[in-house]
Amino acid sequence: MYKSRIAGVGHYVPDNVVTNQDLEKLMDTSNEWIIERTGIEERRFVKPGSDDTPSTMGTKAARVAMERAGVTPDEIDFIVFATLSPDYYFPGPGVLVQEQLGIKEIGALDVRNQCSGFIYALSVADQFIKTGMYKNILVIGSELHSGGLDMTTRGRNVSVIFGDGAGAVVLQATENENSGILSTHLHSEGKHAEELALIGPNTGKWVPEIIEANDAEDISYYPYMNGNFVFKHAVTRFQEVIHEALQTNNKAATDIKLLVPHQANLRISQYIQKKMALSNDQVYNNIMRYGNTTAASIPIAMSEAWEEGKIKEGDLICLAAFGSGFTWASALLYW
Ligand code: UT7
Question: Residue 224: pLDDT band by 50, 70, 90 thresholds?
């Protein structure tokens, strides 16, 4: 039976840095408020008119991951792409990556699990590798939030948080017992679906209806978040799902070399760190520089941690995420 290991990780973020001071010019907010409540100092926004899209950013991150894994695009057997901000309503970006990489007609799957999307995608890819069906799978998380945010004071509790970017890994079959994914854990609680959501346009309210209504007060096509409610659930579910991963594998929090949490809010990461008695060296945060990049945040963080030498072969790595759905997930793996 094969296991799957992360053979290479990469990321791509747009050049355009948007600081909290830049946002102060657009809405009633302040650098102090954003840093105190979220830890975010700046984020990247794709410049209007740029060639960057969720799929092209994903492809750029994937090329870095493939180079680091030492595999060529032709060796990739399957693509799993996680995003909440696809290039098109349909088809999903997975097929666009297949085209952009110029590879043979392999399968491409799109995952719609928002902040947990990357771990869900990793888990799907892990199953294909464990069964022996595929050897090398590209798992990509990419988001282009900036164009769809309400950049007025009305949307400030959401808009100051999110940023654009992409991360990717090559998940590869291995027969090495001491390497690779030990387990993944996936959860959902749909009764809270509307607490963090972008509701429209949808099948109950198609675009022609929205155009006809011409209602400037209709904010259903902007993301909505019940911030306090989401925060409270996040701190609980993050801990639960990390403990689940540790217990499943008879590990303790002290065994974790690095926890790479979804970068939702620095206060959430710090709360989990404190509750689990983890040291500063055991938790990776880069939300200060990129904001919350949803499905891209974990692979971007893993890629930076790897570049900084904080992830090395044989290290026990824990990934965990919580977000819209609600969905939450974790993965425990040896690098
Ligand atoms: O990644 C997916 C999962 N997402 C999360 O886990 C995010 C979870 N939630 C959060 O991170 C936090 O709830 C937020 C950062 C969104 C908000 O922080 P908070 O400490 O929960 O603030 P709040 O929503 O309770 O708002 C406090 C005050 C309000 O004013 P009043 O009613 O006290 O006068 C808001 O109107 O802050 C105001 N406010 C702002 N002020 C300046 C909200 N957004 C802003 C802003 N700038 N951007």
Answer: very high
